Amino acid sequence: MEKSATVHARIEPKTKKKAEGVLKKLGMSPTEAIRLFYNQI
């Protein structure tokens, strides 16, 4: 079994920048946030 898979998504640059700023303050990378989200659903 593969250890990881790649997810590609399109998002508005402004939204991405704002979200990354929030995640940085939380000490979390975008990858970690997406993993957390996927594990919750």
Give helix and strand order, one letter per element, not per position.
Answer: HH
Count of the domains: 1
Number of strands: 0
Number of helices: 2
* N-to-C CA distance: 21 Å
Radius of gyration of CA atoms, rounded to a whole number: 12 Å
SS content category: mainly alpha
InterPro entries: Arc_rbn_hlx_hlx, RelB/DinJ
Protein name: RelB/DinJ family addiction module antitoxin
Can you describe this structure in just a few lines?
The chain is mainly alpha-helical. It is 61% helix and 0% strand.
Keywords for this entry:
41 residues, mainly alpha, 2 helices
Walkthrough of the structure:
With 41 residues, the chain is mainly α. The protein has one domain. 61% of the residues lie in helices and 0% in strands. It has helices at residues 13-26, 30-40. The model has no long low-confidence stretch (mean pLDDT 96).
How are the SSEs placed, and which strands pair?
Elements lengths: L12 H14 L3 H11 L1
